[in-house]
């Protein structure tokens, strides 16, 4: 199965390095002028993508730039950019393009687990869902949390409290997990989110709590940051690769 990768950041690199047969890297979709890091053909226009599946590793910007054209052309686009769905106009244009062209957008669970449990629980009805994202201060670089002076923090700082839509729109590179939780569970407005910069942790720590007709659960995941980007967890890259691999598996765990 020929895979095209969008972007050339640490997640793209992880996918490129770990693809194994029958998956093979066929193409990279990059910004104009960007060089492919590997000996792989690069294109900058989504209309030039020629692959069986597309792995979007370019965040919300990449999905905004290329998602509609790829979906309109009928591609299956695997992505981690759940935050894109917090932008109602972008979400609508992605869904409309997929409906018109027969493409599909597949959201990998990303840096958090228990998304399967949450979506099963949704079937019976959920009453409350809460997500807490805790990262070392360096993991919040380039986000609105910087206004609190991340480098001088000596104790945990809650820099965002609100709903999943506001979290995803304000932190598009750091709150994709909040958006995934919202989409799998009780929606963007009803999902409660807290984002914390904590000088006392080394891992990107994601806690998910849910209540509903099924009962309740609480789960915490301590994910090691990806070499090259303290904002992203290695588990997110692994999750995207697993989603691609499940596309060719005879037996699939969902
Ligand atoms: N759902 C989840 O759990 C997680 C989701 N993510 C998402 O995955 C994305 C990728 O992660 P990293 O590799 O760590 O981030 P990164 O921000 O370092 O890399 C993004 C790459 O995409 C490229 N890019 C951006 N816009 C583009 C466009 N229009 N066309 C082509 N390339 C474009 C950039 O040049 C860069 O190479 C993040 O931006 C974030 O949105 C990251 C971690 C967890
Ligand atoms: O990788 C992580 O730990 C989570 C992340 O960046 C996101 O939710 O966008």
Automatic annotation (TrEMBL):
Molecular function terms from GO: aspartate dehydrogenase [NAD(P)+] activity; NAD binding; NADP binding; oxidoreductase activity, acting on the CH-NH2 group of donors, NAD or NADP as acceptor
Matches recorded under PANTHER family: ASPARTATE DEHYDROGENASE DOMAIN-CONTAINING PROTEIN, L-ASPARTATE DEHYDROGENASE-RELATED
Chain positions recorded as NAD(+) binding sites: 111, 176
Family: Belongs to the L-aspartate dehydrogenase family.
Protein name, as recorded: L-aspartate dehydrogenase
Keywords: NAD, NADP, Oxidoreductase, Pyridine nucleotide biosynthesis
Aspartate dehydrogenase domain mapped to chain residues: 154-240
Enzyme class name: oxidoreductase
């Amino acid at each position: 199965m020929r895979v095209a990768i969008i972007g050339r950041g640490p997640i793209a690199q992880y996918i490129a390095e770990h693809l194994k047969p029958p998956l093979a890297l066929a193409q990279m979709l990059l910004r104009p002028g960007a060089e492919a890091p590997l000996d792989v053909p690069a294109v900058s226009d989504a209309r030039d993508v020629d692959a069986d599946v597309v792995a979007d590793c370019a965040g919300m910007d990449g999905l905004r730039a290329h998602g509609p054209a790829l979906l309109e052309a009928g591609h299956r686009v695997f992505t981690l950019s759940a935050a894109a769905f917090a932008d109602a106009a972008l979400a609508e244009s992605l869904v409309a393009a997929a409906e018109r062209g027969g493409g599909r957008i597949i959201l990998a669970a990303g840096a958090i687990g228990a998304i399967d449990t949450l979506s099963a629980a949704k079937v019976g009805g959920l009453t409350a869902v809460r997500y807490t994202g805790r990262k070392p201060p360096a993991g919040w670089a380039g986000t609105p949390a910087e206004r609190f002076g991340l480098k001088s923090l000596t104790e945990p700082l809650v820099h965002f409290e609100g709903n999943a839509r506001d979290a995803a729109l304000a932190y598009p590179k750091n709150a994709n997990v909040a958006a995934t939780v919202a989409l799998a569970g009780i929606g963007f407005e009803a999902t409660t989110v807290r984002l914390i910069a904590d000088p006392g942790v080394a891992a990107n720590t994601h806690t998910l709590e849910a209540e509903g007709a099924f009962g309740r659960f609480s789960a915490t995941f301590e994910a090691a940051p990806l070499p090259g980007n303290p904002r992203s967890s290695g588990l997110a890259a692994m999750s995207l690769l697993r989603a691609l691999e499940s596309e060719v598996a005879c037996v699939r765990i969902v």
